[in-house]
Each structure stands twice: as C-alpha cells, then as structure tokens.
Automatic annotation (TrEMBL):
<feature type="domain" description="Lipoyl-binding">
    <location>
        <begin position="2"/>
        <end position="77"/>
    </location>
</feature>
<dbReference type="InterPro" id="IPR050537">
    <property type="entry name" value="2-oxoacid_dehydrogenase"/>
</dbReference>
<dbReference type="GO" id="GO:0004149">
    <property type="term" value="F:dihydrolipoyllysine-residue succinyltransferase activity"/>
</dbReference>
<feature type="region of interest" description="Disordered">
    <location>
        <begin position="189"/>
        <end position="224"/>
    </location>
</feature>
<dbReference type="InterPro" id="IPR003016">
    <property type="entry name" value="2-oxoA_DH_lipoyl-BS"/>
</dbReference>
<protein>
    <recommendedName>
        <fullName>Dihydrolipoyllysine-residue succinyltransferase component of 2-oxoglutarate dehydrogenase complex</fullName>
        <ecNumber>2.3.1.61</ecNumber>
    </recommendedName>
</protein>
<dbReference type="InterPro" id="IPR011053">
    <property type="entry name" value="Single_hybrid_motif"/>
</dbReference>
<feature type="compositionally biased region" description="Polar residues">
    <location>
        <begin position="257"/>
        <end position="267"/>
    </location>
</feature>
<keyword id="KW-0808">Transferase</keyword>
<comment type="pathway">
    <text>Amino-acid degradation; L-lysine degradation via saccharopine pathway; glutaryl-CoA from L-lysine: step 6/6.</text>
</comment>
<dbReference type="InterPro" id="IPR036625">
    <property type="entry name" value="E3-bd_dom_sf"/>
</dbReference>
<dbReference type="InterPro" id="IPR006255">
    <property type="entry name" value="SucB"/>
</dbReference>
<feature type="region of interest" description="Disordered">
    <location>
        <begin position="240"/>
        <end position="279"/>
    </location>
</feature>
<comment type="similarity">
    <text>Belongs to the 2-oxoacid dehydrogenase family.</text>
</comment>
<feature type="domain" description="Peripheral subunit-binding (PSBD)">
    <location>
        <begin position="221"/>
        <end position="258"/>
    </location>
</feature>
<dbReference type="InterPro" id="IPR023213">
    <property type="entry name" value="CAT-like_dom_sf"/>
</dbReference>
<feature type="compositionally biased region" description="Basic and acidic residues">
    <location>
        <begin position="85"/>
        <end position="96"/>
    </location>
</feature>
Amino acid sequence: MATEIRVPTLGESVTEATIAKWMKNEGDAVNVDEPLVELETDKVSVEVPAPAAGVLASISANEGDTVEVDALLGAIEAAGASAEAKTEPASKKTESKPAAASGGGEEIEVRVPASGESVTEADIGEWLKKEGDAVELDEPIVSLETDKAAMDVPAPAGGVIKKIIAAEGDTVEVGSLIAIIEAGASANGVASSSEIGDANRPSPRAAAAAGHDVSASNDKPLSPAPRRVVAERGLDATAIQGSGKGGRVTKGDALAAQSTPAQQTRAPSAPRDLGEREERVKMSRLRQTIARRLKEAQDSAAMLTTFNDVDMTAVMELRNQYKDLFDKKHGIKLGFMSFFVKACVHALKEVPDVNAEIDGTDIIYKNHYDIGVAVGTEKGLVVPIIRDADLKSMAEIELEIADYGRKARSGDLKLEDMQGGTFTISNGGVYGSLLSTPILNQPQSGILGMHRIEQRPIARNGEVIIRPMMYLAMSYDHRIVDGKGAVTFLVRVKENLEDPQRLLLDL
C-alpha cells in the first residue's frame, strides 16, 4: 500500500508554497524522515521528510509548481515493491544497517529526533556518554543544538554505547544515525576505543595550560565552553557548583568561580605562548538564527526608534510597601517586569497598530496580547511568551517569567514557548545599559527596551530634585506604526508606570 506525501501545515496564515527542489527522483529508495522535497513560502523554506521508508513511486507536483497545504506531492511504496529502486549512497547504507554486535546483544539505533516544525538539522553540542559507557533507558546521552533551542537525547534502551557515529560540532539531519547501543550489555563487554576520540577529553593545549584533567567535576561532564574557562583560568573543576540541568557546570558557573578566592589554586604559569593568538569557533545553531533574524529585521522593516524617560519612584515605593506581603501570599518576589507587561498591554489596547503585523499587503490586527520577554542565556537571547497577559495577574506574570528563566538557563525551553508573540520587552538594564535601540522581533511591529535605573536631577515645579529615572526606547515598524502612534504608546507606558493606579482604574 502506498503512503502519500502531502504539503504540511506551514504556519499561521500560510496557505500555499512553491516546489523549490526535489531531492529524490522517482524510483529512488528513501528512509523514514529523510528529506524528499524543499518547499518555499513567503516566510520560510522547509523540507518535507519521508513519512515512511520504501521507494519514491511517484511525484505529483513538479519543481516550480505552486501547491496548497495538504496537496498531494507524491507517494512512497513499501520497500521491495519496486524492482527499479536505485541504490542508496554508501553513507545511507551504513546508517540504516549497522554491523552486528560482537557481544550478541540487540543493536539499538540512536537517531536525531524531530524537534519542531521547520527544524531539519542540529549540531552535536556535547556527548554526555562515551563509547563503552553503560546507559539506562531514557538517560540523557547527547545534547543537540538546533537553531531554536538545545535539547538532550535520551537512550532508547538500557545497555552500552557501542559506537558513536557523529562527533561534537557535527551538523546532523533529523533522523540521522548518531550512535548505536548494544541492548542489555554490560560496560565491561564493549571496548571503549573510538575513531572520534573521547568526546569529553579536553584538547592537549587546554589540559597543559590547566595542569590537570578538566573533563569532569564530581561526575558532571563539562561541555566545551566551561571546560575552556576552567583550563584557561586554572580552576579546580571539582569545586565548582553546577547550576545547569542535572547539576551540570555551565560557562557562567565557571566564570563566576574564577573570582572566588577558594578557586585561585593555579600554580605559576609558564611563559605565555604567543604563537596562538586567536581561536576560531563555529557559531551555534541558535546564534546563527539570532544573527539571521536580526539582519532580516533590519533589511525588511522600516525600523525607527523613539525615546522617553520614566520616573520609577511610584513603582519602587509600591514594591517596597507590598513586597513582603506579595512574596508571602504568592511565593514569588514582586519585580519590575510585571509592571511593564501590564503597562504595555494597557498601551497596546489604545494603539492597536503596535500589536499588529504585516503579511504581504495585509495588516493582521491581534485581539490577544502575548508578550515576549527577552531572556539572556549562555548560548544567546531567547524570547519566551507570556500568553494572554491581559488576563493574568501580576503574580501569575512574575511566576511565569521566573519559570521561563529557569527553563532558559537549563536548556528546557520548548519551541512552542517562543512562538506567536505579538509584542516584546527587552531589559538591557540588568546588564547596566543606559540607552539602546532594540531590534524588532519579526513579524512583530514593536519592541520596548528597558534600561538601568539611576538617580538623576530633574526639574519639578521650578525646583531641581533627584529621582530614580529610567530611559525607555520604543523601536517600531514605520510601515504600519506612524510616529504619532509610537509616541502615544510610549507616553502611555510612561504614565502607567509613574502612576500605577491608572492600571487599576483602566485610565
């Protein structure tokens, strides 16, 4: 029986696509999840994977054709149904048919899992196990980085890592074979040698600089970034408390540890080797995506920024008055961000253009208020979404922001956590920024930049007084938001923060 290949759902408001390229011909053998055809929409290019293994029996839409969502693209016959199937490349054969286990146990393949719509490949970030190590069912064995987030791949069975196919830093497609587990085997039954080496062993240069082994601390494997900091700073890896997932040491943990007196155990170093002054490191998938999206925003939007400042006296006094009671009742500290989220939602209702987006020649006005809150992580900036922020209390907003922060630091954010926002708030003030011009998070039309609070002199009623002031920056897409609307929005945010009772009275 043939398995149909159809155009997948391509995202909100996208109803059709163009056939860009077929990667297989009729009669070719295909593996499940192997990319078959590339589609192009007005927003993104996507690859359609094979829904089943077998032979590509027919192609129903040709390159250059425009097809609607769910349209038939072709059909796959079960393996053996066509005697004319073409021979696969040697690399594909090796992946789909690993050698038999020497120990006699069943070989279980570890493959790159699907990680969300439009995500077709990932980078091997870190192997948490090496060849010859025993693993339990569902135990994390490797960390992958996609252009959206990082994730751990669990062991599909208990046994021993017999072979690691892909090394750290390799780019692998969804469905690719990356390791083989010999089910039921013991750690002593499989040799630990590997053609790609120990995935957790530091480079000779880093090990020599550190003077000791930094591959792990208290059985917590170090990923390349913290390992490099430990080696360069001469830190004691076993004394660093890890804050990452499963107690893993992050780069931030290692950087923080270098300023602790107890960590300064480095012996006098040899004269500096001036022969290697630079280091080339491949950008992570997440960093590549951040770079691409920011450049796309600058290239496609008519971006403009307007500024104002806000007296934070009222918000700070309100926090000081109720912070203990708030914490006691809700189990979370009252921060500034919930005030800004509520102030922005109130302003968005008055200036709906800022909460809209452009789609071709149409404007889509959003009747919901899903506010993105930018969170900085070791691997880059991510923007999880506070959905229906207008319906949530300040306590619910603070709890959700805190939960997203924990997920971001541990790499547990999911793709759906960061999709569908209507407006974004970015707080550069936590890093000490005085003023900035934030870049739009497309396809949104507005983003608010917060900055540090500092005591500044201002004139009030003919007198100079000192007040805690914050500069606000509002970047917007001038194609949809006029200057009057942007200024009005920012003034409303300022008024709501300087007199928070306006939010209660809906003024």
